[in-house]
Write a structure and sequence with these properties.
- The chain is elongated.
- The strands form four sheets. The chain has a five-stranded antiparallel β-sheet. The chain has a three-stranded antiparallel β-sheet with strand order 1-2-3. Strands 4-5-6 form a three-stranded antiparallel β-sheet.
- By secondary structure, it is α+β, with helices and mostly antiparallel strands.
Length: 562
């Protein structure tokens, strides 16, 4: 990219110089087409240009418009009047006089003469539009001034000294413009080197310093792009001023330069007028946004106190305070944007309206799933189906809720995993909550075993309760209990239900692992086989681990259950 910019700039030097010289030479050649000298005047067809149409006729001299005829006079149509004026002006200029223009008003008709020879007449109807006849004199003076300027430029075009002076000034201006462009490009390179050095040396400490280090290349690219754009903008402004100045040096091209200057001033005037007109609206929009920020901060502070439990409100609790704070902030800013929209610059333009409609259509078509996720998240928050820190099971995912957002719910399983479940999935499935009915942020612990009918159910209950008693993470209050959940064809299903205490691991999976280990130990000690997962027939010997060394020498003893 840097090589591309440098190559473009080197090419721009020569292109600018070539165009400058080409424009100066063209101006000289254009003016040189008019023969020099007052004695041998050019033919009228080369001196005077008359532009006409069926309704009006325009008289111009060397690209300079003099007058437009808009009505008939003495039986001549407007186009015929322009042609007669062209012939009369050509005849007056062929005499090679001093080129003095005079106007004479007689009975509401103004006659314009060049060196005492009548050229054309100006009527009140030529002013165009419903204007009073009293303005005819001012209108005629304006026409006479344009005619005098055109005649003077015609005489200037026949003066070799004016031609040489214009060429010399144009070449000097070209050289100055070229040097200024070179200076701008050199300044850009030096400023870019200094900016790059400043970004490299002055790095802040802490997080901001790391961010600057990570995005250093992006900062360099942005700095290079901004300086390059600013430099070329100044180059274009310089070239525009140079071209306008060169066009002003020659009589033949001076009207073009004046029109270019008028166009530039009109554009700058429009920009200034637009900026001045947009200031009151911007002030009102800024005031609306300031008030919205104050309201959002006040609502956020109030709801944060509710969320932290410092303030109690009947219609709001700590679980719904966080989503309410987000909704309140979004609602306040959307309302502020709707109120400030009419005061933004260009809000009533067709382009702005078209972009707004396109953005709304894109959002409505592409954000339907996003809106559904957000609504599901809000429904979960306000329904209080789950809270952060609770142990839940949604589908095949079981773990601790660590984040409840608008779009996803994050769950930490006991296997060192973090599962992000879309809120639409959570909202569409049953949620098993192991923490909602337990005090002090603990959780429910339950496990099921299947035992044959040959084993007394009272003995199975006692063994399961003994396994729960050996597990330190099982609470004694409320006491554990066993329920028989199914009488199947070959075995009975028993389910041990208990609650954890402060000694239980934070991860439910670890606490359940300890409980399962104690269940196996107790059943092995009493010679009762567990029939899970499938039962086919009674074996000759019970499938239990006999007492003795329960670990090989190479594996080592298992960790003692707690």
């Amino acid at each position: 990219m840097r090589h591309f910019f440098s190559t473009a700039m080197r090419t721009g030097h020569w292109v600018t110089l070539f165009l400058a010289g080409l424009l100066a030479l063209w101006c000289v050649a254009a003016q040189a087409q008019t023969p020099v000298g007052a004695v041998a005047a050019p033919p009228a067809s080369l001196v005077i240009q008359a532009e006409s149409d069926p309704q009006t006729g325009t008289l111009s001299l060397h690209n300079r418009k003099i007058v437009t005829f808009r009505t008939d006079f003495l039986g001549h149509a407007s186009a015929d009047r322009a042609e007669l004026a062209r012939l009369a002006l050509a005849a007056a200029l062929e005499k090679g006089g001093a080129g003095r223009v005079r106007q004479t008003e007689v009975n509401g008709i103004v006659r314009l003469d060049v060196d005492g020879q009548a050229v054309f007449f100006v009527l009140a109807a030529d002013m165009g539009g419903p204007r009073p006849a009293s303005m005819l004199n001012a209108f005629a003076q304006d026409v006479a001034q344009r005619l005098q300027t055109a005649v003077d430029e015609h005489r200037e075009m026949t003066d070799p000294r004016s031609l040489l002076r214009g060429a010399g000034v144009s070449l000097a201006a070209t050289l100055a413009a070229y040097l200024l462009v070179r200076l701008l490009l050199v300044l850009r390179r030096k400023l870019l080197d200094r900016a790059q050095a400043a970004l490299q040396q002055r790095r802040p400490d802490g997080l901001l310093g790391r961010l600057v280090a990570d995005y250093m290349e992006h900062a360099r690219s942005a700095t290079r792009t901004v300086l390059t754009a600013l430099t070329w903008l100044l180059v274009l402004v310089t070239v525009e001023f140079w071209a306008t100045f060169v066009l002003h040096q020659f009589a033949y091209t001076r009207p073009w330069g004046e029109r270019a200057t008028a166009w530039l001033l009109a554009v700058l005037g429009q920009f200034a007028s637009a900026i001045a007109g947009a200031v009151p609206g911007l002030l009102i929009a800024a005031l609306i946004f300031v008030l919205a920020r104050m309201a959002a901060r006040a609502a956020s502070a109030f709801l944060q106190r509710v969320e932290q439990g410092e303030l109690h409100v009947a219609w709001l609790d700590t679980d719904t305070a966080a989503p309410t704070r987000r909704l309140a902030s979004v609602g306040i800013w959307l309302f502020a944007l709707a109120m400030a929209y009419p005061y933004l610059p260009g809000a009533h333009s067709e382009a702005f309206k078209g972009v707004s409609v396109l953005a709304g259509l894109m959002l409505s078509l592409g954000a339907s799933s996003v809106v559904g996720q957000a609504l599901s998240g809000l429904s979960l928050m306000y329904s209080r189906s789950l809270r952060v820190g609770e142990y839940i099971k949604v589908g095949e995912t079981e773990g601790t809720v660590v984040a409840l957002g608008l779009f996803t719910t994050k769950i930490h399983t006991g296997m060192g995993e973090e599962v992000s479940v879309p809120n639409t999935v959570v909202f569409s499935q049953p949620i098993r909550n192991f923490s909602r009915l337990v005090q002090d942020g603990q959780f429910v612990m339950h496990t099921a075993v299947t035992i044959g009918y040959a084993t007394p159910w009272r003995q199975v209950h006692a063994m399961l309760l003994e396994a729960a008693r050996r597990t330190k993470g099982v609470a004694t209050e409320p006491p554990p209990h066993v329920v028989q959940t199914a009488l199947s064809d070959f075995y009975v299903e028993y389910r041990l239900c208990a609650q954890s205490n402060n000694h239980a691991p934070r991860r439910r999976a670890e606490a359940m692992s300890q409980l399962h280990a104690n269940v196996q130990d107790v059943f092995n000690e009493h010679g009762v086989q567990i029939m899970s997962p499938h039962y086919i027939a009674d074996p000759e010997q019970p499938q239990v681990v006999p007492p003795g060394p329960w670990s090989s020498q190479s594996a080592g003893p298992p960790p003692s259950p707690v």
